[in-house]
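Support request from a user on the community tier.

User writes: "When I paste my structure tokens into the form, the page sometimes reloads and wipes my input. The last time it worked, I copied everything first. Here is what I submitted, just in case something in the input itself triggers the reload:"
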């Protein structure tokens, strides 16, 4: 991979690097989950909303390493 020419590297799709990025991707393309009615559209929308609330909560709380690095009192 690292030795590929830049034009070939640009053709390789990357995976989301965070839950937020994964939710963005799912929000843009979840039609593949709808056939057969296993995952109704509303269920997917509710699940995305729930996960977004969870990520906001997590992002509001400092990581223990942040305390170690920046909160020396």
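"...and here is what came back when it finally went through:"
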């Amino acid at each position: 991979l690292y030795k590929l020419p830049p034009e070939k590297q640009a053709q390789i799709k990357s995976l989301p690097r965070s839950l937020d990025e994964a939710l963005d991707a799912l929000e843009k393309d979840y039609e593949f989950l709808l056939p057969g009615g296993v995952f109704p559209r509303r269920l997917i929308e509710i699940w995305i909303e729930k996960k977004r609330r969870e990520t906001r909560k997590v992002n509001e709380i400092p990581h223990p390493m942040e305390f170690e690095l920046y909160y020396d009192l």
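Agent notes: The reload is a front-end session timeout and is unrelated to the input. The chain has one domain: 15-70. The chain has a mean pLDDT of 93. Escalated to web team.
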